[in-house]
Amino acid sequence: MSELTGRTAEELGAAIAAGETSAVEVTRAHLDRIDAVDPAVHAFLHVAGESAVAQAAEVDRRIAAGEKLGPLAGVPVAVKDVVVTQDMPTTAGSKILEHWLPPYDATLVRRLREAGLVVLGKTNMDEFAMGSSTEYSAYGPTRNPWDTGRIPGGSGGGSAAAVAAREAPLAIGTDTGGSIRQPGAVTGTVGAKPTYGGVSRYGLIAFSSSLDQAGPVTRTVTDAALLHEVIGGHDRCDSTSIDAPVPPVVEAARRGLTGDLTGVKVGVVREFAAAQGAEPGVVAAFEAGVQTLTKLGAEVVEVSCPHFEYALPAYYLIAPSECSSNLARFDGVRYGLRVGDDGSRALEEVMSLTRDRGFGPEVKRRVILGTYALSAGYYDAFYGQAQKVRTLVTRDFTAAFEQVDVLAAPTTPFVAFPFGSRTADPTQMYLADLYTIPSNLYGGPAISVPCGLSEGLPVGLQIMAPTMADDRMYRVAAALESTQSPRLADQTPEVTA
Amino acid sequence: MSVATTDLADVLSRYEVVLGLEVHVELGTRTKMFCSCPTTFGAEPNTQICPVCLGMPGALPVVNAVGVESAIKIGLALGCDIAQWCRFARKNYFYPDMPKNFQTSQYDEPICFDGAIDVDVDGKPVTVAIERAHMEEDTGKSLHVGGATGRIHGATHSLLDFNRAGIPLVEIVTKPIVGAGADAPAIARAYVAAIRDIVRALGVSDARMDQGSIRADVNVSLMPIGATEFGTRTETKNVNSLRSVERTVRFEMLRQAEVLDGGGVIHQETRHFNEATGETMGGRVKETATDYRYFPEPDLVPLAPEREWVEKLRAELPELPAAKRARLRSEWGLSELDMQAIDNAGAFDLIEATVSAGASPESARKWWLGELSRYANEHDAELAELTATPAHVAELQSLVDGGRLTDKLARTVLSGVLAGEGTPAEVMAARNLEVVNDTGALTAAVDEAIAANPDVAAKVRDGKVAAAGVLVGAVMKATRGQADAKSVRELIIARLTAE
To answer: Is the separation of the CB atoms in A193 and A215 below 8 Å?
Structure first.
């Protein structure tokens, strides 16, 4: 393993800028690493070796020409396959988009390229970002570098595993109910979901439009903040994008690294702790993390979010409802898979066959659920009611943030579980998002940062902040990270094929 | 009284008709409703498209502010309230020319609601209440190839053109129109015409029914006289001329009455109007009602039009057609009856344009209600569809006024214009129809006629001026009708009395 793949993105960017190494060398080192370990990890659905090297060479040329580029120029990044890329196939982990080459780049991809980052390829995920294990990828699961018999989390398991296995120093994930944070927690990496509207959704293949948000997956909190700064900010192409400057996340992360949290008030949600099903080892690691925050000077208090128990059921009405509409366009008419068009069948039948063959079981489950929830006569009882719960949850969190600066919780109730252990009962899988869903419902930012091990597997601690106060969560997360030496993310065991 | 009206009277002796009209107005914005693609009509298929209007995975809509402004203007002109706050909604159904398989529309929160307009039906003002006017996007177009009818039935394959997908529409929905009776077909027609005239006056649409920029969905139901509950309605979709709107209502009233009289039931269904037969035809009857699963569009933020903006738009509204009609009636010095004749002929705008092009109101009215109306009737066409334009008519009249054409010659020239031979001046030149007013040639012809008819000439000399007609006829014959008969007559009398 090249020494370069062990460095943080910040270090790589600095070394490239200083001419100590080149973007091409760094890119090649990571491509070699992918060659070596990805057969075992399967984090990538597409590796764009040639174009990555070409992009890197272009960055080197610009640096040599004396151009002043950003702090991550020349640093490789892996992008979740739900984000469209003009020069790479984009499948969203689904057979229905196999071999589809988008006609445009997502805004965040454009921003990555403009900042000189090198896109290595596209990472594996549960189909259309629906799942918590990558077991619902149509292209086979990704394996957790900590234990290849276990899941890497989902839906963005590919991005998290790629970063954990040092195949990429940076990755982009998307988080609708926890798809950045839960994989981050179970792979010992840092995963941040920015404020809804903080990063453009233009070019994110929509799962649930009112909940989806892209964000960074990295090995350090500072790297996450640096990547957040590159992709964040207003975009005219996304009407829900917030027209305000990106919060000072990098500055906040650096401040957190000093290890001083004096004056910071951290809330622990009573109802989170009371919820059933969290593994004792996870609870223990979380509580140790909270104690560390106290030692760093934070004041920890208990707060209440009385409607927490309704958040998960509300989410499983809102997200499938929106998904049933968002995924309607995949019908075989204009692009992607088309099944049964042999001249003997009517259009409707071809559409049905295409969707039957093209979508996997979890996507079908949610499309059916959402179609039902939006139906005449059921709308008020399901979708309408879920929206009311969303409002109540938002009020709970707004009230909580009047008392505290940030909230802390475990990221997910359990460590990486073995393949196949939760696929039989979908609700067991849904529980993985129990603690992550509320921030998607109220739109606030949240970050998962490693806080310890349970049964030898990583546990994540989640810091949640009010909307557009993303900087607060970076500060607290960085402070926690500063107490770990070496960082948990740098302790990923070596993967063997 | 035609047979159809007799039947209608019979129907109305037993049933009351209830109408509902949904008029789709394609806005004339430069770009589409949710993306920056151009909206030019008639471009090569699939040349005005982008990831957004193609509904490509990941693409997101952004609202066209001019589209919103146009919708508000329409609402204000229809006397509607403008919502303080409203949202777009998704209307979900699968259709191959709809790229996302949902239409971005508005549902229970329309931007304009609760309006009313007065429409003129044979001189009587009829108030039509407006339920709502909302914004939505148009779909693409399917072209079914291989069948005889151009419809999907029998086609071997279909082609899709997405140039129209995402073009902004405003859908204007009336409240149920009850008590229209025998006027129902005329009210439907007058209402659609009024909407067309209003949006044209607002400058928010080119309002071309023939190009589909205004399309009407016509809802008709019958209920027994005295009933309080409306009967089941049918919806005849995409009716694209005023005349067809009127015929659709009439036909549906007759058809539904026949079904009901025979003990049958009316199915709630979508029908199509066939221009050729004048009949509506049902589609496939669906066993279940379509459930569009409307929900608020999460990709767009709510709209909250600022009150100052709305008031500014209200203050800037142009003169609306009803007001304009009253003003021009007075300027043209016409009676209400004259104006009704103009309205019935659909000639108001044409006459106005002809007057603007320089003709007198009287001459403009004469041409459009006379020769041109006759021609339109003979050819089963709308006046506005004729080859002859207001500019042509004004030019024709100026040729008459300048003495270069007689009325009779002008009618011949007009027939050439109608046949597509060119402008009046071009037709006059090509067909060599200009009045012969070269006095030398005319005097020679007069002298020749006098010499050939000495008896008649003698009578005229003796004061029997009426006898000059024979000489006029001879001169007109010699000049192949291209002389002005009145001038010829004067010339003959002057010549004979001067001797």
So the answer is: yes
Residue A303 lies in a domain: no
**Residue-wise pLDDT tens digits, B401-411:** 988 888 888 99
Which of B378, B400, B427 represents a domain boundary (last residue)?
Answer: B427
The reply to whether A208 belongs to the active site is no
Could you tell me which residues are beta bridge partners of residue B22? B173, B217
Based on the fold, state whether residues B133 and B177 are members of the same structural domain.
yes
Is residue B175 in a domain?
Answer: yes
**pLDDT average, residue stretch B328-356:** 88
Closest in A106, A335, A351 to B58, CB measured: A106
Pick the catalytic residue from A132, A133, A137, A155.
Answer: A155
Which chain B residues touch A348 with a CB distance below 8 Å?
A: 94
Cβ contacts of A236 on chain B, cutoff 8 Å: 62
Q: Which pair of structure tokens corresponds to residue A335? A: 């692009």
Domain range for B309 is: 3-313
Name the residue with higher pLDDT: B42 or A35: A35
Direct distance between the N- and C-terminal alpha carbons of chain A, in angstroms, rounded to an integer: 14
Whether residues B309 and B330 fall in one domain = no
| Total domains in the fold of chain A | 1
* B265 and B376 within one domain: no
Of A361, A328, A335, A342, the C-alpha closest to A99 is A335
Segment B52-95, tens digit of pLDDT: 999 999 999 999 999 999 999 999 999 999 999 999 999 999 99
Question: Residue A487 sits in which domain range?
Answer: 3-267+403-491
Sort B337 into a burial class: Cβ within 10 Å, 0-12 / 13-18 / 19+. exposed
User: Residues B106, B182: one domain?
Assistant: yes
Q: Which of B313, B347, B367 is the last residue of a domain?
A: B313
* Residue A485 is among the residues annotated as catalytic for this protein: no
Same domain, B248 and B275: yes
Tell if the CB–CB gap between B60 and A201 is shorter than 8 Å.
yes
Within a domain: residue A129?
A: yes
Q: What is the mean pLDDT of residues A208-220?
A: 98
Partners of A322 on chain B (C-beta within 8 Å) are 295, 298
Residue A56 carries which side chain, given as an amino acid letter?
A
Mean pLDDT within B389-416: 92
What ipTM goes with this model? 0.96
Q: Is the dihedral of CA A259, A263, A268, A269 positive or negative?
A: negative
What's the mean per-residue pLDDT of chain B?
91
**CA B390 – CA B401 distance, rounded (Å):** 16
Please tell me the distance in Å from A82's CA to the nearest CA on chain B: 8
64-103 in B: which are within 8 Å (CB) of A?
Answer: 90, 92, 94, 96, 99-102
Is residue A325 one of the residues assigned to a domain? Answer: no
Give the span between the Cα atoms of B22 and B12, in whole angstroms: 24
B432 is a domain residue: no
Q: How many domains does chain B have?
A: 3
- pLDDT at residue B168 tops 50: yes
CB-based contact B295 A321, cutoff 8 Å? yes
Q: Using an 8 Å Cβ cutoff, are A141 and A161 in contact?
A: no
pLDDT of residue A372: 96
Calculate mean pLDDT across residues B212-228: 95
Q: In terms of domains, do B466 and B376 share one? A: no
Query: Does residue A324 carry a catalytic annotation?
Result: no
Report pLDDT for B3. 44
Q: What percent of chain A has pLDDT over 70?
A: 100
Domain membership of residue B434 (yes or no) is: no
CATH number at A63 reads 3.90.1300.10
pLDDT at position A433 over 50: yes
Per the CB < 8 Å rule, is A240 touching B299? yes
- Separation of alpha carbons A477 and B216, rounded Å: 60
Backbone φ/ψ region at B242: left (φ over 0), alpha (ψ -120 to 50), beta: alpha
Give the pLDDT mean for A216-221. Answer: 98
> What's the CATH code of the domain at B455?
1.10.10
Q: pLDDT confidence of B414, banded at 50, 70, 90?
A: very high
